[in-house]
Amino acid sequence: MSLQNNKISGQKIHWQAHQSTNTEMPENTTSAMHYAWELGGIPEIDIRQTADGIIIGMHDATPKRTTTAPIADQDTPISELTFAQVQNWDAGIKFSESFRGEKIPSLEQVLDVLSDYPEREVYLDYKQVDLASLAGVIQKYGVERQVIFCHRDQDNCRTMKRLAPEIRTMLWIPDTEIDTRFGEVAEAGFDSLDMIQFHLVDAEEKPEWRYRLQLQFLQNALEQLREAGLELEVLIFHFDQASLFGLLDVGIRRFAVDEPKVFAAELERYYNK
């Protein structure tokens, strides 16, 4: 296999700290947000809504895995708990003692900070929220152009585009669905989308091309999206220098990564090689 060097001089690389950098920081915390921004990336917040309508950063449906919620609340859905309740728990200590005292942030707290830095952006990964309420919060802080809304259901992207036209939307497609879903979305003219994300999973064997998705398919999709005015992002669950440099050479300019610090260091090496 030959990877054509397609390095585009001066084109910025954008990268998402997937699941709020949960391998390097306590996920969905304000510390994780600042960590990604300071590294030059874009943090992702998984969004859910409490019983009293407050949108918060939380990946799981319940607080058991990431917080110090008492046993009585550990398996209770976030949608049945109030914001005051979730604020009683520590969201950092399970990751590391050094993050003792971290609280689950409300989306408003995050967007309030974002509004002071127009050069920063944030991904909002839909888990369980009322979309009209979400649009209202985003517009309240005047950060529509700084928000990338993402979900696997294109209908939710359409709804958000209608409610908040200036936000960008990203449809993410799991590895096992790329072959069929991408064709379906393309046939519909990429309606209401600004980006598409492919999940790249390692092949069972490790040939020269690391990922299960074929290189030619990736190149074709990248070209098709460019022609349509969209961007392609790849979520690379695992990477090394060779595989990352290969993706950059192909022309990928948006990434989602679980190891932001490692990724940033390799990116620096790429441009200094």
UniProtKB/TrEMBL annotation:
This is Glycerophosphodiester phosphodiesterase family protein. PANTHER family: GLYCEROPHOSPHODIESTER PHOSPHODIESTERASE, GLYCEROPHOSPHORYL DIESTER PHOSPHODIESTERASE. Transmembrane segments: none annotated. CDD domains: GDPD_AtGDE_like. It comes from Paenibacillus radicis (ex Xue et al. 2023). Residues 13-267 form the GP-PDE domain. Pfam families: GDPD. The lineage of its organism: Bacteria, Bacillati, Bacillota, Bacilli, Bacillales. InterPro entries: GP_PDE_dom, PLC-like_Pdiesterase_TIM-brl.
